[in-house]
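Before the break, one more example. Copy the sequence into your notebook; we will annotate it together after we see the structure.
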Amino acid sequence: MKKECVTMLLAGGAGTRLGALTQNLAKPAVPFGGRYRIIDFALSNCLNSHMFTVGVLTQYSPLELHKHIGVGKPWDLDRMHDGLTTLSPFTEHTGGNWYLGTADAITKNRTYIEGYDPDYLLVISGDHIYHMDYDKLLRHHKKTQADVTISVLEVPWKETSRFGILNTTDDLRIYDFEEKPLHAKSNLASMGIYIFNWNVLKDYLEKDATDPDSDHDFGKNILPAMLADNLRLYAYRFEGYWKDVGTIESYWEAHMDLLAEDLERFLNNNEWRTYSHDSNFPPQLIDEHAVVHQSLVNNGCIVSGTLDHSILFENVQVGKGATIKQSILHPGVRVGKNVYLERVIAKEDVVIPDNTTLIASDDQEPIVLSIENQKKMMNA
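Here is what the structure looks like once it is written out:
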């Protein structure tokens, strides 16, 4: 069945810089925002943008991620003739291996893509926090008659070395691409969101697959090759909130952003909803001893202490006399009486004993508590 555009969602990242948060868990499956997982934002963007043919490419520690996305029901992607399809690495009769890079992941799933005979291929990542209308991106791609369109945003100059940087003409045609430059000429950073003309891209994928010196990566190999051949590459300026939650610090910052006054509607935007599973816990209980200031508290929570700029996922309990400040408590966390937490991230089902004090100062990375490491931290 022909589709104008097929979406390929890259969700196989290990997220090693997230440390204990991605121990035995793919980065896109990490809980975020009180009731979601990171991948929910990309999948919700697909639904809201009417992109209903979505291949989700998984790889690292995928069990929890597969359970979460299922057949795509929360995002209206449980459809008969398109919808969501999970695409894991597989072995053919000639042998197989892991996805070697972003371009290789697409190459290994050409059969899936060509089954829909698309005109365009949208490639997105499952590990960023943002709201974006991909249909507007596609319309921009058509308007400029581009071979490739790359979504970009302006980043602080001091952070340009973390990104692929694009240099463009006044009409946003790309003439140069720098992968994580030490001295950038522009602060327009690639968001890792691409629209390709499929009949153009597949030729470059074929050439790249046979190059033994290639990293099989869009940013390092495919896009520079297209630029060298003078193809029409255009940038699409994104304006809005976008966060790469690739480190403990940025993950914590993104949660604090949700509590900032200028972003408090980000999760409460009725015109652009973020969807996920509902565990059907009962409503939260804020008892007579509780004090709650600028915090998100999910269903199933029982709060008897003080919350200040903190986020509680579902089924969290906070004991009497406890103070939780600028902290993130994942589902099922139990906080005892007279506990003090500041800049702490507690993973699922962690139990924090009475009278515990854990503080990460402003010049420290937030403390991550997991069942595996909490004894060591408590005794430190």
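Residues 166 and 177 are 5 Å apart (CA to CA). The chain has a mean pLDDT of 92. Try to locate both features in your own notes.
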